[in-house]
Specification:
The complex is a heterodimer. Chain A contains ten helices and no strands. Helix content of chain A is about 60%, strand content about 0%. By secondary structure, chain A is mainly α. By secondary structure, chain B is an alpha+beta fold. In chain B, about 30% of the residues lie in helices and about 20% in strands. Chain B is built from three helices and eight strands; from the N terminus they run αααββββββββ. The relative contact order of chain B is 0.14. Classes of the chains: A mainly alpha, B alpha+beta. At the A-B interface, helix 1, helix 2, helix 3, helix 4 and helix 5 of A face helix 1, helix 2 and strand 6 of B.
Chain lengths: ~220, ~200
């Protein structure tokens, strides 16, 4: 496996900027949507990110979105690089075996202001199962004006309680509806904050039930 | 105020990519360091893990068969990511579609997008799945003033928005907001799940 070293990456990017005519290996989806220098820079970054084991499609998509929105090339490049950095942090935090949608959702949460340590909390809280939906919900609630630390605390507690994606989605809808109706984001969150009784713990037989430690003499500890 | 600062950051960061200060951006440095990592961690699982995965694989096949019927139903009737739509019917309440798509098959699923925009002359769906092409997925007006379109989506996370009358970038009022706001306004998020990959 070959990967570009940072110096090489720099040279390729600068060469693409200075000599657009060299830009012959762009991703075909970018042709006609971006100028050739920007397309080549995005393509090379996407290639490198892919070789590093990260999902690269979101980078291409972010560039294409910028083209549709008539964004300047500088802004498109900044978006693509920032997204790549967030994906890298997400993978280093959640692990290399994480599914692509999990990494992309985690990158989004990081962009929203969630700290990497919160991702680890979520992973510990839900050891089995994807974190994609919880992370999307966290990012959504932060986007609606709830402080990220508060959202993280609430959602992590819900995950520890065994709350499934469906219940989390319903929670998000309720909070969002209240905010749309004029309630303050924090009030809305408090009003619908998941309680232990609503986590549906009993519906989760797939989680192994830990037996209580046994004292000498065989009497279970209480 | 915060948005202005973010905008300013992106513009400055973008410019820095074209100048000799390229290497000074901490975020980019992190990416490049990651890119240069050999990432040669051993991928061979322990024997017990192999057994575990093998049995899980069998379970997945069995589950895939069960889910296939549901998937067929979903494809037939369409799962729905709805906009401002008062009619619930068979729609999924929150547009976080939980579709039983086996990971191994990565089976695409038909999703029905709707938006209530009775005054609009033209509405199209743009998103990662159609390369944000404004002409790729025009929506059709229904008799009750809604705009609809069905799209085949792979499992995963998808960003999308509605483009109303060619210039109005509208999010789905019922969907989660995207955290990314690279170009000013947000998008909507849709997740087509693959529960068997969990």
């Amino acid at each position: 496996m070959t990967t570009l070293r940072s110096g090489q990456m720099f040279i390729v990017t600068v060469a693409a900027m200075l000599f657009p005519s060299l830009a012959t290996a762009q991703d075909s989806r970018l042709v006609g949507r971006l100028d050739s220098a920007t397309a080549l820079a995005v393509t090379h970054l996407a290639d490198s990110v892919r070789r590093a084991g990260l999902p690269s499609e979101p980078l291409i998509a972010a560039a294409l979105e910028g083209a549709t929105r008539h964004a300047e090339a500088d802004r498109i490049l900044a978006a693509v690089h920032a997204l790549a950095a967030a994906l890298d942090t997400a993978q280093r935090t959640l692990g290399k075996r994480s599914a692509d949608e999990e990494l992309v959702s985690a990158a989004g949460a990081l962009v929203a202001g969630v700290r990497p340590s919160a991702l680890q909390d979520f992973r510990l809280a839900r050891k089995r199962g994807s974190l994609a939906v919880p992370l999307v919900i966290v990012a959504d609630l932060v986007a609606r004006g709830i402080p990220s630390d508060t959202v993280v605390r609430v959602v992590a507690a819900a995950l520890r309680g065994g709350m499934d994606d469906e219940a989390l989605s319903a929670f998000r809808v309720s909070v969002g509806r209240d905010i749309s109706d004029g309630r303050s984001p924090l009030q809305a969150l408090q009003a619908h904050r998941p309680s232990a009784a609503r986590t549906g713990r009993s519906k989760l037989p797939r989680f192994p039930v830990l037996k209580p430690p046994v004292r000498r003499g065989g009497v279970p500890m209480r | 105020m915060k948005d202005d600062r973010a905008d300013d950051y992106f513009v400055r960061a973008g410019r820095s990519l074209r100048t000799s200060t390229y290497g000074s951006d901490a975020a980019i440095e992190r990416v490049l360091r990651a890119i240069n990592d050999e990432r040669s961690a051993p991928q061979i699982p322990a024997l017990s893990v192999v057994r575990s995965r093998s049995s899980r694989h069998i379970t997945r096949i069995a589950a895939a068969a069960i889910f296939a019927a549901g998937l067929g139903l979903g494809a037939t009737f369409g799962w729905r990511a709805h906009g401002d739509n008062p009619v619930r019917g068979n729609t999924v309440d929150a547009p976080m579609i939980s579709v039983p798509a086996p990971a191994q098959l990565a089976a695409p699923t038909t999703v029905l997008f709707t938006l209530a925009a009775s005054g609009a002359q033209q509405v199209s769906l743009v998103g990662e799945f159609n390369a944000w092409d404004a002409k790729a997925t025009p929506m059709h007006r229904t008799t009750n003033g809604e705009w609809q379109v069905r799209v085949l989506l792979k499992p995963g996370r998808h960003l999308y928005a509605f483009l109303v009358d060619s210039n109005g970038w509208v999010t789905d009022p019922h969907a989660p907001l995207s955290p990314e706001r690279w170009y000013g306004s947000r998008n909507s998020v849709l997740i087509v799940n693959r529960p068997l990959n969990q």
